[in-house]
Design brief:
- The protein has one domain.
- It is mainly α.
- 76% of the residues lie in helices and 2% in strands.
- It has ten helices and two strands.
């Protein structure tokens, strides 16, 4: 089981090194959004409450953490889309008829795609930490773990959608319709405080809100959710994404 999974994961890593435009697109888009919002809305939203420090953080610092979340979402989408490319090239059919267990196929795709998304978003998060500083020694490791849970959940959802959709254009349409509202209501762009009651309720139920709150809380920025709830929600979201991908791929292989 381990060898096929590692082989598929290694193939994903090799593929991304040969597609530098994909890396640039995954990181440049969120960074440009951060630059526009941080400069254009700095006066409208001058500061955001901090969690463990007496002084509030600037909007630019708050959005820098959201930029890492956005990078994880975009990177996961691009990584999951490789499943459609494998199907069109005929590689996926060869994998499915091989004696490799279904668990190995799922693990290999999740590991490769998730690791790519995590590495790219972690680079953006480290840049945010340089702006913010780490309030506790465990702050950065906890934030990186929260980012890993986020990538696992999003990658699992992306792989499940990619299995069900036959074209890259259709996949982009489905993921944009699903993930863009989730991203906007995750607290990555603006905090829960001050939002309308219906929007606050929607944000608290949004799966992307939980890992976003976990990452912000670990770095000392207002998380708007209890720490235990952020941990429980992030773990549940990661497990849901992984299980959904495994169920969809296993069902498709058995047909």
């Amino acid at each position: 089981m381990t060898r096929p999974a590692l082989a598929l994961a290694h193939r994903e890593l090799v593929r991304v090194t040969r597609q530098p435009a994909r890396v640039v697109a995954s990181i440049a888009t969120p960074v440009l959004v951060w630059a526009v919002l941080a400069s254009g809305l700095a006066r409208a939203i001058p500061a955001v409450p901090a969690q463990d420090t007496p002084a509030p953080v600037s909007l630019a610092v708050y959005l820098s953490i959201g930029t890492a979340v956005m990078t994880a979402v975009f990177s996961s989408i691009f990584a999951a889309m490789s499943l459609i490319e494998d199907r069109q090239e005929g590689f996926l059919q060869g994998v499915l008829v091989s004696p490799a267990p279904t668990a190995s196929i799922v693990a290999g795709k999740l590991l490769g795609a998730g690791l790519i998304a995590w590495a790219q978003s972690a680079a953006v998060l480290l840049a945010a930490v340089l702006m913010l500083g780490v309030p506790t020694p465990l702050g950065l490791p906890v934030a990186l773990l929260g980012l890993a849970l986020l990538c696992a959940g999003i990658t699992g959802l992306g792989l499940a959608a990619a299995w069900a959709v036959n074209s890259t254009s259709g996949f982009h349409g489905v993921m944009n319709a699903l993930l863009m509202p989730m991203l906007l209501l995750s607290g990555a762009m603006f905090p829960l405080r001050g939002a309308a009651p219906w929007m606050t309720a929607a944000m608290q139920l949004n799966p992307l809100t939980w890992p976003s709150a976990l990452i912000r809380g670990a770095l000392g920025v207002s998380a708007d959710l209890p720490h235990w709830a952020a941990w429980a929600g992030s773990g549940a979201f990661a497990a849901l994404g992984v299980c959904l991908a495994a169920a969809v791929i296993a069902r498709g292989r058995n047909r």
